[in-house]
Design brief:
By secondary structure, the chain is of the alpha+beta class. Helices cover 25% and strands 29% of the residues. The protein has two helices and six strands, in the order βββαββαβ. The chain is elongated, with a radius of gyration of 16 Å.
Amino acid sequence: MQQAILKQEALPFATTPRRCLIGEGERRRIVSTTQQLAEQVYAAFQQLGYRQLRTLHCKSNGATVTLQGTIGSFYLKQIAQSTAAKVEGVERVVNEIEVPDMTDSKTNRRLG
């Protein structure tokens, strides 16, 4: 199965077809490729208004979405995961988002 990667070069061919419904009401549409599913997750991130979520990468393989990147808090990591899980057509979320350690190794105190 081919993987679709968002925020990278668009694939010149259709990925493995998968039909699922995305959106609500009149905005609901059929998504037929895994790349479109990843794009739908990324669009959901943009609608939340958290700038850091826009820096994440979304990959999809079938109905599994993988989230990657670095973000500033565990709260935003959880927001990203729960948002991706709510997108219709997503059956599994693999959360590979990293939150950097913000403690000073000498004093063991949190920075910032």
